[in-house]
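Running this now, will post back.
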Amino acid sequence: MKPLGVVTRGTTNPNRLRRVDNWIVETCGDALRAAADPLVVDLGYGAFPVTAVELRARLAAGVRADIRVVGLEIDPVRVAAAQPAADPPGLTFARGGFELAGLRPTLVRAFNVLRQYDESEVAEAWRTVTGRLAPGGLLVEGTCDELGRLGAWVLLDAAGPRTLTLAARPTALESPAQLAERLPKALIHRNVPGEPIHDLLVALADAWQAAAGYAPFGPRDRWTRTVAAVKQAGWPVLDRPRRWRLGELTLPWPTIAPT
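Update: finished.
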């Protein structure tokens, strides 16, 4: 099966995807525990396989020990270079793209992949991947900065996008406006007046400024107060303060979907 997609830049770093991996353990763990075959695809792992290795280790420790992770890359040179890392049981590497190399995984993580595509190509890529998931399967697609301090991702199933999560390391956050640079491709060009995602980021920035008095208690407390204020203002925040303290905020996709 011919891989679908183009070769990405492939830049990566150890622990770059730690935030989304921990979120996957928390949010998608039940789907993996219930799966007859706990197969996970790391789509577009990059020039080095470190994030695929880390994903397998985190899922094995936090969800189930028999988890299987397959790292897929279009570039055959990257696949060959990754083979020495396929040492832990349950971790392999293969050539593939959005068609998932014919696999039917329960979960796909695709990070910093669609960022290099045109916005008009996102919906088709989503449909291609979700159409190849196992029943009840999930896709987590998003973007983060080079060190994993700022990120955003969409959770999708066969019916389409379900939620958007914004995540930041509170100690590195000067303003929630910084998250605009790391929005998923489906939203990054929509941060303009009149679009819901713009309204959300403005509301977060205003609430962050209003919570400046809590800065002496630490950035986690200030972020928590910020999210609480946004929720009180009417935004349908889905997660709870325990996740807010990690620098996260999750909303239903229809709330911020492009107009």
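The beta strands are 39-43, 68-73, 91-95, 107-111, 138-144, 150-157, 160-168, 248-252. More later if anyone needs it.
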